[in-house]
Amino acid sequence: MSKIKDIKLSPSGEMKIKWVERNMPVLRGIGEDFKRIKPFAGMKVALSVHLEAKTAYLCRVMEMGGAEMYVTGSNPLSTQDDVAAALAAGGMNVFAEYGCSMERYEECLEEVLKVGPNIIIDDGGDLVHLIHTKYADLIPNVIGGCEETTTGINRLKIMSKAGELKFPMVMVNDADCKHMFDNRYGTGQSVWDGICRTTNLIVAGKYVVISGYGWCGKGVTLRAKGLGAKVIVTETDPVRALEAVMDGYEVMPMAEAAKIGDIFCTVTGGRDIITAEHYPLMKDGAILSNAGHFNIEVDMDALEKMAVEKYEARHNIQGYVMPDGRTLFTIAEGRLVNLAAADGHPAEIMDMSFAIQAMSAQFLAENRGKLKADVVAVPREIDEDVARRKLKAMGVEIDSLSREQAEYLGK
After folding, report:
1. Most buried in the list 66, 236, 346, 382, measured by CB within 10 Å?
2. What is the pLDDT of residue 151?
């Protein structure tokens, strides 16, 4: 039972999945464990994550653990049709298509919920929001879920504070082996993969404006600096702004940065970061991109209204001609630049992030009925297990605490 673009695309997708499998030793090892213990036997898992090869391999690892998988993407422009076809060809239930309308995207979300899932793996919170608002009758089937992103966790915390969250959700994004590596090194590299391959322009010597200095923003600024950019950071959090200053970056309001920047990248997880206030201030040729989960950080509606002409300047680059003749460019319609215009994070990084996902889902299955309907931290034991597996795969050994050292530290 699948609804995809074309099953004939599966050989290409299968090749991509085999490549990432080779480069994801931690997840591969967890898959071998799952084959033996079958933690998800008899369970249905609904998954909405950016549907590319690394996600596909996570789906297969979950399937090794006995899960009946129902899969969709978390962004229409990040779905890779050949990968979706490869999963469908293997018998998995897949509902996703690159570039589909928002109506079709929501239909795909509904398809994976209608089956009555026991575990939800979400990226951005759309599945959890939908089941609470439209499919509340299916909530009793849900043991719990896992959330991949900062944006999704923010949405969950709002729901929890309002008393609206009806089952436990593990905050995968907040695990050390996720945010410290995925958000910093993964986002840092993949954002510039997307910008560079899409524009084919040099970064060195340009003014790059990064909005947001969280873990993702730190990674994007670090890579921009490494590419030779003159980096400016905009922030609303005074502590993070101070950290950016101490790290050697210029910090200023967006109203000032807008006048200077050549390339902009929003990485806040919020909304309305670059707006109609800023477009009249920007240079001719300024390039706007977004690495936050939803396409609301760059106000595309305002840009559309202000422009006197819109055209495709290059694949995945839209040009907007302003009334005074300046042209501003956006990458991938303001959607996630590292996925809508590239292949997402490197496989070795997602090896850790998806290992946290898989083991957090196992934690939910093993603690069915024992957890409160709230946001739940990833157990420290899972973080440490994933880190040790990754170190072993890299051929790195570390010291162990002696009994006396452990007692001294209260462990």
Report:
1. 382
2. 87
